[in-house]
Specification:
mainly alpha, MetI-like fold, two-stranded antiparallel sheet
């Protein structure tokens, strides 16, 4: 390998192994690494679903009995109906709220629109598990807000421990996803279509209904399917809300049959996982079919200008009230409730919080080594996992988009495929993989196992964050490097890598936030010494220690907030430099 600059007219010689060029070795290594990481949890799960005994046991036999027992299980039919009802309601609520808020913030002259738009993204930095805790503390049967309403009205007109109650909570966590897609499309829309409607005498509401909303069909479809699939795999809300009243969904059904049984039925567990995987894959196919004719909705042209804000008149105050009511009762009050609960003995409107202030909840967290280790473990996994995953994703993007590798399309599909694998199933699959693959047992139950699982789960996000910038870099730079003798790896390491550094850093920030919130793969992979914040909060909640849960949740939110602020400052400084 050369370390000096390449001079024009020279022909560098690069090392090869057994006559194979180093660029081929690197490309094949990236392909095998990504393929192995993605298939490692899926293949054992499929095998286990057709075996009579656990993968690691002797005297196994192939059978279809696991699927027969699954489909004849007395609870499974209700689980399917509950899951579909929950996912449909969550998707409808989240998409409707997000579309209304995106239109209000981006396309109308609503007062304080920029501040509202920034606050709408806050739930992205908060784990759905933390948000669910906050909702129970504020709106649960004994919640702060519920007790106050009951004292005034004599009753509470809502019940979180129902499928609609679960859907509303989950929708608050999902609204930012749909808002990002819809607001981005609205900002890029060509205003000439609206100007044409104005020349025909259309007013603001007519323009919104006949021009703006129809153009949002692609982002609505994409975000709706993403929210629907995410709702099917979520564990936090179904477990916290559904378990006490006997309402099971896909994730809670797998959790109960996998962890809460003295002798887990691995065959039934694997069959349920495979069925869930198949359903998620069908959703991806459906998404591609629905967006097949998306070019009909293209509204961004070369001469596009900034759209003119629509004046809704007095209706803008109705829109402003809707936005603030959502922000107040959706994410803000539950987070405030968590903060107050973390510093009080009990949180109730019947007693002033100032009379029950305490630091014992935080003292409990920092006085037990296992709780402190869960915080350290989460930070280590988030930092190391984000760096490694971003590096692998950057290599995968360049191999898939800027090389002559034979299987570059397959590599891209493989890197994006973990988006259809629920985190709980990913954890189960890696648990079986580490138990079955010779030598892999060494890392089972360690932080390395969690970093691998969390990294595979986050790989599609990293790939999606880096790929657009790679596509924006002109290939003439590659050709110029090749003309002076640089091979593929030298071109990447000396040119492309430096140009995509902003995307790499953005991917690192995104992955850190995702991994610090993540906990579902750790449900099956973590041991007593490798618990993360999410699994520790879940155990404390099931033990009834709400004060410690609130304190740990606030610590997680504080870590994320500090990191995001520091990352924003560093990236801003780097951009200016």
């Amino acid at each position: 390998m050369l370390d000096q600059p390449i001079s024009v007219g020279s022909t560098p010689r690069y090392r090869s192994v057994l006559g194979v060029r180093r660029e081929s070795l690197i490309q094949w290594a990236v392909f095998v690494l990504v393929l192995a990481g993605v298939l490692a949890p899926i293949v054992p799960t499929i095998f286990q679903s057709v075996l009579t005994r656990p993968l690691y046991a002797a005297h196994k036999a192939v059978t279809a009995d696991n699927y027969v027992r699954l489909f004849t299980h007395h609870d499974f039919g209700q689980v399917v109906l509950n899951s579909l009802e929950f996912a449909v309601l969550t998707t409808l609520i989240a998409v409707v709220v997000a579309v209304v808020l995106a239109v209000l913030v981006v396309r109308t002259a609503i007062p304080g629109g920029r501040a509202i738009g920034a606050m709408l993204l806050w739930p992205l930095y908060i784990s759905p598990l933390v948000l669910a805790f906050g909702w129970i503390i504020m709106y649960g049967p004994a919640g702060f807000f519920s007790v106050g309403v009951q004292k005034v009205l004599g009753g509470v007109p809502w019940n979180l421990y129902t499928i609609p109650g679960m859907a509303v909570t989950e929708a608050v966590a999902m609204v930012p996803i749909a808002y990002l897609y819809c607001s981005g499309a609205l900002r890029l829309a060509d205003p000439s279509l609206e100007d044409a409607a104005r020349t025909c005498g259309a007013g603001p509401l007519r323009i919104l209904g006949t021009v703006v909303l129809p153009l949002l069909r692609p982002p609505i479809i994409y975000s709706a399917l993403l929210i629907f699939s995410t709702s099917l795999e979520t564990l936090s809300v179904p477990l916290l809300y559904g378990r006490p009243v006997g309402i099971n969904l896909f994730a809670s059904f797998i959790y109960i049959n996998g962890l809460q049984q003295s002798r887990p039925d691995y065959g039934l567990l694997a069959a349920a996982s495979v069925v869930t995987l198949g359903f998620m894959a069908l959703l991806v196919v459906l998404q591609s079919m629905l967006l097949r004719n998306a070019q009909r909705f293209v509204a961004v042209r070369g001469k596009a200008a900034r759209p003119r804000l629509l004046d809704l008149g007095r209706l803008r105050w109705v829109g402003l009230a809707f936005a603030w009511l959502y922000l107040l009762f959706g994410p803000l009050l539950p987070i405030l409730g968590l903060i107050l609960r973390s510093i009080t003995v009990v949180l109730t409107p019947l007693v002033s919080p100032f009379r029950v202030l305490t630091s014992s909840n935080y003292a409990t967290i920092f006085s037990y080594g296992s709780f402190v280790h869960s915080i350290i473990n989460s930070v280590v996994i988030a930092v190391v996992g984000a760096i490694l995953t971003a590096l692998i994703a950057a290599l995968a993007v360049v191999v898939a988009r800027r090389s002559g590798f034979r299987f570059q399309r397959l590599l891209e599909v493989t890197a994006l495929s973990p988006q259809v694998v629920p985190g709980l199933i990913l954890g189960i699959g890696f648990f079986w993989a580490f138990a079955y693959i010779p030598g892999a047992g060494v890392i089972s139950g360690t932080l390395i196992a969690l970093i691998i699982a969390f990294g595979v789960r986050s790989l599609p996000s990293a790939f999606g964050a880096i790929a657009p910038l790679v596509m924006q870099v002109g290939e003439e730079l590659d050709n110029a490097a090749r003309s002076v003798g640089a091979d593929w790896w030298r071109t990447f390491s000396r040119i492309l890598l430096r140009l995509i550094t902003p995307a790499f850093l953005a991917a690192f920030v995104l992955l850190f936030v995702q991994m610090i919130k993540e906990f579902t793969p750790a449900v099956f992979l973590a041991t007593a010494n490798t618990q993360v914040i999410g699994t520790t909060m879940l155990q404390l909640w099931l033990n009834g220690d709400t004060g410690s849960v609130a304190a740990l949740a606030v610590i997680q939110v504080a870590i994320t907030t500090v990191f995001v602020l520091l990352a924003g400052y560093v990236l801003k400084v780097r951009t200016h430099a």
